[in-house]
Design goal:
Length: about 300
């Protein structure tokens, strides 16, 4: 049977492609942009809020929308009907991060003649990401490809772990997922920090990203700060770095004083629970150990502007 896949979450699009089914994709979410070829696919969703606003404006808009029991995203029912997918992939992990299962069920209910299989992912930790890959592979009758992909990704993460110097003390790392209000990166990111040789702080693996106050940050006083706002690339992040540097607490932090603050591409890597969690771990390794082992420096991470001569 020919597969016709609509992926409504960027990480799922990457999973489908890594499994060898990129040519079976017929539709995508407004956020799916990797591999680059998928940008030619029909867009099947859009945000209901203005994502061009400041960090604070986006946060407030999301809170208002969720408070009113509305979805942050709209699914284009007419496009789903036109595309007649055999599979629709979505997620239940976070209604803020991507189109949710609820959105898809509402759009599909009684409308799509093709009666697509709805595959819902729920990645809270690395083990869940492997399970999600298995789930997608099984739905596409590609179980062996799924197992092969998982083993390959785990092998590469093991390679990162083996490169960590054993004699050194692990730096305490704060991964900043949102600028205003400040949020710490949770879910699978703490595991990536540990794989890369750091000690994650102000977060807990397998749990949602928490809000953090400046007092919390000062008390924890991390050795390293990695900035990775959800949905922001490095250039977008640079536009709002003043939210950190304008605060009187900023210069008091050990990581700032020791020039150990770094920008990363949170949109393409850390906030996508798919195959590129491996590259995310590699980026953290390069950040923590001052090496460009995989050549990510300059492309996917950079030193905090103004802190380094």
């Amino acid at each position: 049977m020919e597969h016709r896949i609509v992926s409504l979450i960027a990480s799922a699009t990457e999973i489908v492609s890594a499994l060898g089914f990129q040519d079976s994709l017929v539709g995508r979410s407004h956020e799916c942009d990797f591999p680059p070829e998928v940008e030619n696919l029909t867009v099947c969703s859009e945000p209901r809020i203005d994502v061009t606003g400041t960090s604070l404006e986006i946060d407030q808009a999301v809170r208002r929308t969720v408070r009113d029991a509305l979805s942050v995203y709209s699914v284009f029912r007419h496009e789903l009907e036109r595309l007649q997918p055999t599979h629709i992939i979505t997620q239940t992990q976070c209604d803020v991060c991507a189109v949710s299962l609820r959105d898809v069920e509402a759009a599909v209910c009684g409308m799509v003649v093709s009666r697509p299989a709805i595959v819902s992912l729920e990645p809270m930790c690395l083990a869940n990401i492997w399970s999600d890959i298995e789930r997608v592979a099984e739905s596409l009758d590609a179980t062996e490809s799924g197992q092969s992909l998982i083993q390959s990704l785990q092998f590469r993460l093991d390679d990162v772990k083996k490169r960590v110097p054993q004699a050194t003390q692990r730096p305490r790392v704060f991964c900043l997922e949102w600028l205003e209000p400040i949020m710490s990166a949770g879910n699978w990111v703490p595991e990536l920090v540990e794989i890369a040789g750091g000690k994650p702080i102000l977060c807990e693996a397998g749990k949602h990203s928490p809000y953090v106050t400046w007092d919390d940050l000062l008390e924890a006083d991390p050795d390293v700060i990695a900035i990775m706002p959800c949905g922001f690339d490095m250039e977008r992040t640079k536009q709002e770095l003043h939210l950190l540097t304008d605060d009187l607490h900023w210069s008091q932090l050990r990581a700032v004083q020791n020039r150990r603050v770094y920008l990363t591409d949170g949109n393409q890597f850390f906030n996508r629970p798919g195959p590129r969690v491996v590259e995310s771990a590699e980026i953290l390794f390069e950040v923590l150990h001052g090496e460009s082992t995989w050549g990510h420096c300059g492309n996917s991470w950079a030193e905090f502007p103004g802190l380094h001569p």
